[in-house]
């Protein structure tokens, strides 16, 4: 079945955008893993969160494509009624569609929250010596745990039964709007809490323009996910008040792909925290120490070379002194006698 006339997203556009962003996310993640594991030979907890998020993103994308036609069929039924469609087949698919939608939502959060935790552990290294900001980091981290649990619990109650009458109609619309509003609120609040960390760093710490620019970029990356979540909630209802389930699923899927892309950018951590880490300071210190040692060795080598030059024989110098002072010269003795006369 093709797209319903009243929906804002065609099937072709939906599949195309989803595939493009998913491909970009996988490419960005693969590039990050290559840089971190192959080039830098490093693996941190952030990389672990990224790998987990990528694995779930692959699963949720496959499930999204498999359930996309059912979502459009259900939206057609809600908006257009029976018409010439096989109503019985669509009705039979409603319970399955409900379970698939809940599974999609839960998997989506299993992508988004690991990305948020990865951001937190990225900033952990930057705030480790700033007491007040470190306390706020712990507050954000602790708040994130019940936020994850709340999202799963709320989604579970989005469609608590398999009764078809409870899955469609005004009551189902109201329940879906409430659930989406609550989960989006947790999503946006946690995004802004994570984004507050680079804001505090920019405000409190005296760092170079280069580092401020890097932290500003990190701030913008964190806020992109919040903007996508707000767009998802803003367009949840159609003109007649019905919930656009295709719109909600579409933007949640794209938020997951965008989140993986944004996290992958932090592979270039040297740009964001250049000159501020102890490892960087040790590298710089070792560089100047080695440079001074090389210069000292060069000076000693030059001095040794000067010492190896052939010396003027001492007898020659003695003879010169004798000649200049006139010691032992008859002519000079005669002149002295003349001066005394």
Molecular structure report:
The protein has 341 residues and is mainly alpha-helical. The chain is 81% helix and 0% strand. It contains 12 helices and no strands. α2 packs antiparallel against α8, α3 runs antiparallel to α4 and α7 packs antiparallel against α8. The longest helix is centred in the N-terminal third of the chain and has 41 residues. It is elongated, with a radius of gyration of 38 Å.
In short:
The chain is mostly helical and 341 residues long. The protein has helices at residues 11-39, 45-80, 87-127, 131-156, 164-167, 170-204, 209-234, 245-264, 269-273, 278-307, 314-325, 330-340. Helix content is 81%, strand content 0%.
What topology does this entry show?
Layout: H1 11-39, H2 45-80, H3 87-127, H4 131-156, H5 164-167, H6 170-204, H7 209-234, H8 245-264, H9 269-273, H10 278-307, H11 314-325, H12 330-340
Helix pairs in contact: 1-2, 1-8, 2-3, 2-8, 3-4, 3-6, 3-8, 4-6, 6-7, 7-8
């Amino acid at each position: 079945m093709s797209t319903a006339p009243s929906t804002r997203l065609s099937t072709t556009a939906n599949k195309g955008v989803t595939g493009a962003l998913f491909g970009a996310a996988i490419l960005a993640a693969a590039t990050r893993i290559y840089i971190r594991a192959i080039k830098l030979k490093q693996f941190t907890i952030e990389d672990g969160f990224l790998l987990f998020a990528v694995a779930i993103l692959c699963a949720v994308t496959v499930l999204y494509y498999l359930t996309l036609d059912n979502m459009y069929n259900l939206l057609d039924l809600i908006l257009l009624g029976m018409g010439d469609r096989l109503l019985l087949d669509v009705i039979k698919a409603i319970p399955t569609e409900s379970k698939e939608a809940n599974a999609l939502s839960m998997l989506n959060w299993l992508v988004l929250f690991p990305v948020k935790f990865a951001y937190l552990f990225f900033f952990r290294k930057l705030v480790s010596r700033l007491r007040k900001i470190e306390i706020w980091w712990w507050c954000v981290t602790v708040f994130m745990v019940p936020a994850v649990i709340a999202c799963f619990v709320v989604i579970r109650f989005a469609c608590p039964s398999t009764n078809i009458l409870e899955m469609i109609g005004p009551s189902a619309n109201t329940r879906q709007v409430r659930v989406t509003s609550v989960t989006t609120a947790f999503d946006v609040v946690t995004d802004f809490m994570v984004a507050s960390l680079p804001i505090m760093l920019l405000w409190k710490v005296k760092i170079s323009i280069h580092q401020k620019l890097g932290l500003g970029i990190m701030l913008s990356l964190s806020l992109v996910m919040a903007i996508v979540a707000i767009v998802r909630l803003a367009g949840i209802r159609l003109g007649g008040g019905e919930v656009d389930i295709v719109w909600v699923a579409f933007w949640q899927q794209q938020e997951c792909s965008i989140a993986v892309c944004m996290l992958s950018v932090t592979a270039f951590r040297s740009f964001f925290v250049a000159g501020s880490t102890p490892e960087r300071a040790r590298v710089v210190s070792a560089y100047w120490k080695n440079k001074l040692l090389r210069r000292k060795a060069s000076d000693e080598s030059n001095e040794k070379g000067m010492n190896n030059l052939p010396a003027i024989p001492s007898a020659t110098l003695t003879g010169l002194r004798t000649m200049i002072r006139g010691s032992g010269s008859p002519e000079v003795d005669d002149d002295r006698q003349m001066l005394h006369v």
